[in-house]
Write a structure and sequence with these properties.
Oligomer: single chain
Shape: globular
Number of strands: 10
Structural class: alpha/beta
Helix content: 40-55%
Largest sheet: 8 strands, mixed
Order of helices and strands: EHEHHHEHEEHEEEHEHHHHEH
């Protein structure tokens, strides 16, 4: 009997993606080793590092991040197609993944991206691993898109937020999916009786617009503070630019994910409750990884039973077909 191929679909979710590390660790420790891994956005980052044997290095990097270090990786770009150039993050990925090609990996890996202009769903299953990962997480308006083989690509979550369908197309007979946005957008209900209210004039008056001399400041300190506030918001004030963009993106992603999962549900779903984690809370890796492990462990017994019933041999080499 041929060994059942296991697929792992890692969804998008910005900083919440560190939880994928915990999920993958829990699965591997339980003897569940995916033959096929497909990632969208941050899921592509974690999936690629795992397939390349660098998940531990990624975990160490994530756990060492602080608010200041996160901001230090954001090289702002006001002349191009994204607020963040992404070169610093690219250099970090290059250190870990180097010139690896996807075809060189032990497990079968694919990153999902979206083509600008056509809206085509692009499956990146060949070529440089770093380029595929960058294209998959290139959040529109935040990161610059990536050009691969003459096509401009950005975040795959626009078309396939949790790529279960890709795992199946690549031959997976049992698919485990990880949803990072399970409780982020609620159920998207309608509020037909929303009452308008008077604006808080006092609060708005307490937030004066910065003047040009104050913006310039000394050594660019005031500029950095302004950018940080505009991008990420501050306290109870209006949300920052990136928060508005990404929240809108998440709502669209949530609707698409629900629709696609209804038509092609996974065999096992790891739903993580992460609504209290901000989209840019990359410094909360310790908590996120722990939640990922806990979420996966809650489903391990059922997954183990179902996989064994389908003829999966624990501990067998990845991708090898066994003949009884």
């Amino acid at each position: 009997m041929a060994k059942t191929k296991i697929g792992l679909a890692l969804g998008g979710g910005a900083a919440r993606g560190w939880a994928h590390i915990g999920v993958v660790k829990a699965l591997v420790e339980a003897g569940i080793k995916p033959d096929i891994i497909v990632g969208t956005s941050i899921g592509a980052v974690v999936g690629a590092c795992h397939c390349a044997g660098h998940l531990e290095s990624l975990e160490d990097f994530a756990r060492q991040l602080t608010r200041r270090r996160v901001f230090g990786y954001l090289d702002f770009n006001f002349a191009g197609t994204g607020l963040i150039n992404g070169q610093r993050l690219c250099e970090r990925l290059e250190q870990q993944l180097g010139d690896l090609n996807i075809e060189d990996l032990d497990a079968r890996f694919t990153a999902v991206a979206t083509e600008i202009g056509t809206g085509h769903e692009i499956w990146l299953s060949r070529g440089r691993l770093v380029d595929a990962v960058r294209a998959s997480y290139a959040l529109p308006g935040v990161f610059r898109p990536v050009k691969i083989n003459g096509r401009w690509l950005f975040d795959g979550a626009l078309v396939n937020p949790i790529p279960v369908s890709v795992c199946r197309a690549l031959g997976a007979r049992y698919v485990i999916a990880v949803n990072l946005n399970f409780d982020v957008c609620g159920r998207g209900t309608i509020d037909p009786h929303f009452e308008p209210f008077e604006p808080d004039v006092a609060a708005e008056a307490s937030e004066p617009e910065p003047q040009l001399p104050a913006i310039l400041g000394k050594n660019g300190v005031s500029v950095r503070r302004l950018l940080q506030r505009q991008l990420f918001g501050k306290g109870e004030a209006a949300p920052g630019i990136s928060t508005v963009m990404v929240e809108a993106f998440n709502i669209v992603q949530d609707r698409i994910a629900r629709s696609r999962l209804a038509g092609d549900p996974p065999d096992a779903m790891v739903n993580l409750r992460l609504s209290d984690i901000g989209l840019f809370d990359f410094h909360r890796a310790d908590e996120l990884i722990a939640r990922g492990e806990e979420g996966a462990m809650r489903n391990l017994a059922d997954m183990r039973r179902e996989i064994d019933a389908r003829g999966y041999a624990p501990g067998s080499p990845v991708g090898v077909v066994e003949i009884a």
